[in-house]
From TrEMBL, chain B:
This protein's name: MoaD/ThiS family protein
InterPro entries per record: Beta-grasp_dom_sf, Mopterin_synth/thiamin_S_b, Sulfur_Carrier/Prot_Modifier, ThiS/MoaD-like
PANTHER family named among the record's database cross-references: SULFUR CARRIER PROTEIN CYSO (PTHR38031:SF1), SULFUR CARRIER PROTEIN SLR0821-RELATED (PTHR38031)
Length: 152, 93
């Protein structure tokens, strides 16, 4: 499967909402999705999810919420453009567990770390593609708005 | 007996890209065996070696997670809809 433009572009607002969610749920892992129009690759609709595991070392979308989310995206012709979660004590890099459960080859997997593990300060924000167990980090570009398409 | 089965992106390689397929069976277990007869390999992604539903695959009968019903023994009827969704999960280790 090709990597289409190894870059995640998202708005400052979405970036800040993901970080705020990670911060609010610390010391548990926070998780969620940013949905966007199917095929556009543009993250638009912020959907924070409940971590059913309520754990500092694990996250899992609640199964009922997951069904609701996918039905909703289906109805709106959306896909999960970003799937994000936080690591609370380790760096913002996909763990073995993250890789083995990564089932959306088209998604940007965003990791936020709420731990300062490498001296670069807390709230590292990094993005990856995870396809067939292979992790590729990509650049993150933060913009005020998407070109002339989005006006919020 | 026709049951609609909604297939997640990651498993559409088994269904030639189809988002939904039809199958039959009196139970979920039978349905998965029926699907496997036309979409070889798909059952293995849903059921483990011991014959249990895989931990990180969610299967819903209509709106209900089958874990809260009878798992693979869940009875199916004509017109039911089954949705398969891989868990969205991960962790630190």
């Amino acid at each position: 499967m090709p990597i289409l433009g190894a870059m995640l572009t998202l708005t400052q607002d979405l970036h800040d909402r993901i970080v705020a969610h990670a911060r609010a749920d610390h010391p548990d892992e926070a998780c969620g999705v940013v949905a966007g129009p199917a095929g556009s690759g543009r993250p638009e609709r912020f959907v924070p999810m409940l971590n059913a595991a309520r754990s500092p070392t694990f996250y899992e979308f609640d199964s009922g919420d997951l069904l609701k989310l996918y039905r909703e995206m289906d109805d709106r012709d959306e896909e999960p453009v970003i799937i994000y979660h936080s690591h609370t004590a380790t760096e913002a890099y996909p763990s073995r567990t993250d890789i083995s459960y990564a089932n959306e080859p088209g998604a940007h997997y965003v990791l936020v770390s709420t731990a300062d593990t490498d001296g670069s300060g807390p709230f590292q924000f990094r993005s990856f593609r995870i396809v067939d167990g292979e992790v590729t980090e990509e650049e993150v570009e933060i913009v005020a708005a998407y070109g002339n398409v989005t006006t919020q | 007996m026709a049951i609609e089965v909604r297939i997640p992106t990651i498993l559409r390689t088994y269904t030639d890209g189809a988002k939904a397929v039809e199958g039959g069976g009196a139970t979920l277990d039978e349905l998965f065996k029926d699907l496997d007869s036309r979409h070889a390999g798909i059952r293995e992604r849903l059921v483990d070696e011991s014959g249990a539903l895989r931990r990180f695959v969610n299967v819903y009968l209509n709106d209900e997670d089958v874990r809260f019903l009878d798992g693979l023994a869940t009875a199916l009827g004509d017109g039911d809809s089954v949705t398969i969704l891989p868990a969205v999960a991960g962790g630190m280790v």
